[in-house]
Amino acid sequence: MIKIGGVNIDVSHPKAFATNLEAHNINMRYEYIFNDGFRSDGEVNWFINRFKLKSRADSIEEMADKVDIGFIQSCNWDKHIDQAMPFIQKGKPVFIDKPIVGSMKDIERIEKLVEEGARILGSSSLRYSKEIKEFLSRPVEERGDIISIFGTSGVDEFNYSVHIVEAMSALAGAKGKSCQYIGK
Fold this sequence. Notes:
Layout: E1 2-7, H1 13-23, E2 28-34, H2 41-50, E3 55-56, H3 60-66, E4 69-72, H4 80-89, E5 94-96, H5 104-115, E6 120-121, H6 130-137, H7 140-143, H8 157-172
């Protein structure tokens, strides 16, 4: 069983992830939660009880000792790297929910940590969607060559463009090198 240590449940993803892990019998589950976000004790206790976590952690450092991976799911991206550091310092992988960071300074910090061996993931599940996998599994003769890809985000671009970039990267079969916002 892969043990997840969750840092905050500020966004909807922790509940969605925990529900899907449970529903699909995936060998991974939230074991501990640390909360210094805006969720109330009642909301955090509900999450702990609903998903049968072992307990609420008093610190991220304490939790990092007890789990296999850290999930940073705070709304304040200015804290994401600092919240991830206890896991990174213990050689454990970290998933940082979107947006991973909010400044070039923090992007450079993430790059440096990865160059030094940290395992950090931030992604959209659209990269791994059933529809894209099924489309790409069809022979080129049947589906045709991918000549160009256009994507749009129906919500705010800052928080949700990652979904389009990830889907496009999966379709193109390559890592994105750059992306450009061309306006509304």
